[in-house]
Specification:
The structure holds two protein chains of two kinds.
Chain A (H helix, E strand, L loop, with lengths): L9 H6 L2 H6 L5 H11 L14 E8 L8 E3 L3 H6 L11 E2 L4 E3 L4 H8 L3 E8 L7 H10 L11 H9 L10 E4 L15 E3 L14 H12 L7 H26 L10 H14 L6 E7 L7 H26 L5 E7 L19 E6 L6 E3 L17 E2 H12 L5 H4 L12
Helix pairs in contact in A: 5-11, 10-11
Chain B lengths: L17 H11 L5 H20 L27 H32 L3 H13 L4 H4 L2 H13 L5 H9 L2 H6 L13 H11 L7 H10 L3 E3 L13 E3 L9 E3 L2 E3 L3 H9 L4 H13 L9 H13 L4 H9 L2 H4 L11 H12 L5 H13 L22 H16 L31 H12 L6 H16 L4 H13 L8
Antiparallel strand pairs in B: 1-2, 3-4
Classes of the chains: A alpha/beta, B mainly alpha.
Chain lengths: ~425, ~500
């Protein structure tokens, strides 16, 4: 069915956004289907539109200091290693008689108390790399530390388990300026967007219908294009196809929850809008950066954590109001934790094992993973107790309900992280 | 000098014409209008490259007005809490405005410059020694770093490494001003090797610790001034310097930062690392295995001539490899290349106000000047492009061409954050027919032309506008708006 057939009147045509119409001639069939599904949930391939599980990945970029996020406040080794930065028992928000959250994390404590948050300790991988860029690549491609993979792990999930949508765009949506490396795959790069209202081409001519028609024609994939141009043409097609839907959904949904005025929270709000509209994406991605706290860490780190926690809190509240919280699993990770001992500039250098958060309806609440020892260290860093790919395997198998093996390349034990 | 790459020789089938001259101007500069291209055509390749390479380091210039951030240090500590807060907010406002003006100031230079390679190299080094104004705070130190990179744009690489190691903005950005003996801070040491000189895999974690020790005590005068620091000077503080023995990449001794830099420059990994980056920036985004042999040759030249940039660039810009057919139109323009190039092709010099708006818009398309995404700088190539940035690039160009709502004399183009723009004054090329107009615009703006069906569609669009007796300027504007909102215009 041609999406244009859905559009009855000229007014409706314009309201729905010209680009959907503009792209109609070249829309691959599956997008066609997804596009219509947005209007009519009953027609989704699964037949149960509300049942489709959704994974939201949050990247905490720069290397979050896990030890000052979830504080082992009774551990003397902690206080010895952190004479300046260490958080005292009376400062932390206590979870139990050993562990407490950073004082700027009441929002996260609230989620924890409501049973919506899991915290996995000691997450890392063998032979850890202390470079931001390499370590992030290892996380995003789910590689061994001496293995260089071209595609992202989410991209491989798209390739292997979203067949039919494999050439398409809407399987994954990232909010932000950069497409995540995790989404990189052999067929498409998914969709990236910043804010829905700027996510469309704006014509300038009075006779804009003709100008948009022309715009469409000039974006058409051509034969014999060089590889770079070919890549641009495919991205252009994805952009044109997704643009109309995104704007449409964003216009429809008004959130009843007020989000903090931070870029991170506003990014999550866009994701909530798309989930509310049933865009059809299975994986969403957002990023919150600045965790590279080598110096004068205390205030910066507290503020960063607060932004993360308040954003996440609003997002889950919004999802609950929509009735979607049970369909959404959030995973928040960082490329590494930080060195156990603070340095001489009131900060911490790059480390190894760190924390990973799971949140949302399906997240089994509580503390997970073995707590790494603070005295048995590797080059001054925490040793990992959980391989991050076990978390991925768990999410793939138990949440997205697919075989992790083709995605991760080898078997990793799953963990008891979910209420499924 | 004897070139190590095959020298480009124009032939009857591949003459030195506008197309190849434009390729050189796009890559070694930001592209330009017909007159500029024709000048290079007339010079011939050798002279054209010489013209681009020939530029002097900037002389002494007066400090731009916008760098004056005025407050009384003593006053900041006086008065009520509220008064102090208000003064602080005022300083932050001045700094923000100063940063915005600095961005606009550089953008104007890129558009106006008679020596585009100077700007392009400064941009290269800014991405290489990436420093975020967000962390450094305040335009003065960012301006200082910019002047350093501009002054050393084609200096021997040692001067750059040493200069940047003592640069106040960099010292703050990677926390080295707080690096003290006993408990060193590794931030600068790691990035110096990983991102600035050798690349990952060419040093060990032990080297990182040792280099950090060598740079202890490299600090700033008044470093502990914290957030009120407006200007600072490099200071070597022997009391905080670790003068014990260190071993860096096999070299042992009481090494200091400068000696570490010399050790780095002796590493076989150094020249190839830099050359790869230059090649990706100027020649080909996506290296392929067939280029490895050439890269090795160029790296040998770079090392042999004491890490001088000019011989390397000359070799590259005069090579057959650079003008190879498969290199033309295979580079994804950075947002700066896209925008500065468009303004230069249109023959427009933005006012300060317009440049400020444009600089703000650059952020949305992923190249916020003075605020790269992280210490690795802008990755370039395909990383510039995703569905979001592609649409925003189109709309950015649309706003330049057609103006944005609320701007002087209206404008129908896309609304943009950061303010309004007037429609660009256009001088439509002389063309008798629609087909001729399309051919001219394609030639002037695209490195890879449209295909036949696309050309036919654009010609029909223009014919219809002409049939409706649309003024020539408006016809040209509408056609150009679509022509520049294409995948084709994103490459050069």
């Amino acid at each position: 069915m041609n999406p244009l057939d859905k559009v009855k009147t000229r007014r409706e045509f314009l309201q729905r956004g010209l680009t959907l119409a503009a792209a109609a001639a070249t829309v691959p069939t599956f997008v066609d289907r997804t596009a219509l599904a947005a209007d009519n949930p009953a027609t989704t391939p699964a037949g149960r539109p509300q049942a489709q599980p959704i994974l939201v990945i949050v990247q905490l970029a720069g290397g979050n200091d896990g030890l000052n996020t979830l504080v082992p406040y009774t551990d003397e080794a902690y206080h010895r290693a952190r004479p300046t930065l260490g958080l005292k028992a009376e400062q932390v928000l206590k979870i139990d008689d050993q562990w407490g959250l950073h004082p700027q994390l009441p929002a996260l404590k609230g989620l924890y108390d409501q049973g919506l948050l899991g915290i996995v300790r000691g997450v890392g991988y063998p032979n850890p790399d202390r470079s931001h860029f390499r370590s992030m690549e290892i996380w995003e491609t789910a590689a061994d530390s001496n293995q260089y993979l071209r595609h992202g792990w989410v991209g491989r999930y798209f390739d292997n388990h979203c067949v039919g949508a494999a050439e398409g765009s809407l399987v994954g949506l990232a909010v932000g300026r950069q497409a995540p490396q995790a989404f990189g795959n052999s067929h498409s790069l998914g969709v990236s967007l910043q804010r829905p209202d700027t996510y469309r081409w704006r014509p300038s001519a009075r006779d804009y219908v003709r100008q948009v028609e022309l715009f469409k024609a000039l974006a058409e994939p051509t034969t014999g294009a060089n590889p770079t141009l070919d890549f641009l043409q495919r991205t252009a097609l994805n952009a044109n196809v997704s643009s109309a839907q995104v704007i449409d959904l964003a216009l429809k949904y008004r959130s009843s929850v007020s989000y903090p005025d931070t870029e991170f929270a506003q990014d999550l709000k866009v994701i909530a809008q798309m989930i509310a509209g049933n865009l059809g994406s299975r994986v969403y991605y957002a990023s919150h950066g600045g965790f590279d706290t080598h110096a004068q860490q205390a205030k910066q780190h507290g503020d960063l954590l607060e932004t993360f926690a308040t954003g996440l809190e609003a997002f889950l509240k919004d999802l609950a109001a929509q009735g979607n919280r049970e369909r959404v699993l959030v995973i928040a990770f960082s490329e590494f934790g930080r060195r156990v001992a603070e340095n001489g500039s009131d900060g911490t250098d790059h480390g190894a094992a760190g924390l990973l958060f799971t949140a949302g309806g399906p997240a089994r609440p509580g503390l997970h993973g073995g707590a790494p020892s603070l005295t048995d260290l590797e080059r001054g860093d925490l040793k990992h107790t959980v391989d991050f790919r076990s978390v991925y395997a768990t999410a793939l198998q138990q949440w997205l309900r697919c075989d992790p093996l083709p995605v991760l390349g080898k078997a990793f034990p799953t963990l008891d992280l979910l209420r499924v | 000098m004897a070139t190590v790459l095959t020298l480009f020789q124009p032939t009857r089938t591949r003459p030195w014409d506008r197309r190849l001259a434009r390729h050189l101007l796009e890559r070694a500069g930001f592209g330009g209008g017909v007159a500029e291209v024709d000048e290079l055509v007339a010079l011939g390749p050798r002279e054209a490259v010489q013209k681009l390479l020939r530029f002097d380091p900037p002389g002494d210039e007066p400090q731009p007005e916008f760098l004056k951030i005025e407050y009384d240090w003593a006053e900041l500590r006086q008065g009520t809490e509220r008064e102090r807060q208000l003064r602080l907010l005022d300083i932050l406002r001045q700094r923000r405005q100063g940063m915005n003006s600095l961005k606009a100031w550089w953008l104007q230079r890129m558009v106006a410059t008679p020596t585009p390679l100077q700007e392009k190299l400064t941009l290269f080094w800014h991405g290489h020694f990436a420093t975020e104004a967000q962390k450094v705070k305040g335009p003065n130190m960012m301006y200082g770093q910019h002047q350093l990179l501009r002054r050393l744009a084609k200096a021997p690489f040692r001067d750059l490494l040493l200069g940047i190691s003592k640069d106040p903005a960099m010292l703050i950005y990677l926390d080295n001003h707080l690096n003290v003996r006993g408990r060193p801070n590794e931030n600068y040491a790691r990035e110096l090797m990983e991102l600035f000189s050798l690349g990952i895999g060419h040093y060990t974690e032990q080297d990182v610790s040792e280099v950090a020790r060598a740079f202890t005590g490299w600090t700033l005068l008044g470093a502990r001034g914290g957030q009120f620091l407006e200007q600072a000077e490099f200071l070597f503080n022997p009391r905080n310097h670790d003068d014990g023995s260190k071993t860096v990449l096999g070299a042992t001794g009481n090494l200091n930062g400068e000696q570490v830099i010399d050790v780095l420059l002796q590493q076989p990994a150094c020249a190839p690392f830099l050359v790869r980056k230059l090649w990706r920036f100027f020649v080909h985004d996506e290296l392929d295995p067939t280029e490895e042999a050439d890269l090795t040759k160029v790296a040998n030249v770079f090392r042999a001539c004491g890490y001088q940039l000019e011989p390397v660039l000359e070799t590259v810009f005069l090579s057959e490899q650079f003008y190879a057919e498969r290199r033309i139109g295979a580079h994804i323009k950075s947002p700066c290349e896209l925008v500065v190039g468009t303004l230069r092709k249109l023959g427009l010099q933005p006012t300060v106000e317009q440049a400020t708006v444009v600089a703000t818009m650059l952020r949305g398309v992923g190249q916020d000047l003075f605020d790269p995404p992280n210490v690795a700088g802008w990755a370039g190539g395909r990383e510039w492009i995703n569905t979001s940035t592609l649409l925003q690039r189109y709309n950015f160009i649309g706003a330049l061409l057609t103006g944005s709502p609320g701007g002087p004399r209206g404008g129908q183009g896309p609304r943009q954050r950061g303010g309004a723009l007037p429609p660009a004054p256009l001088q439509p090329p002389a063309a008798k027919t629609a087909a001729e107009l399309v051919a001219t615009l394609e030639e002037q703006y695209l490195a890879v032309g449209l295909d036949t069906a696309q050309r036919r569609a654009l010609t029909a669009f223009v014919e219809e506008l002409q049939r409706q007796r649309t003024p020539a300027t408006e016809t040209c504007r509408q056609a150009l708006h679509v022509l520049l909102s294409t995948p084709n215009y994103q490459v050069c």
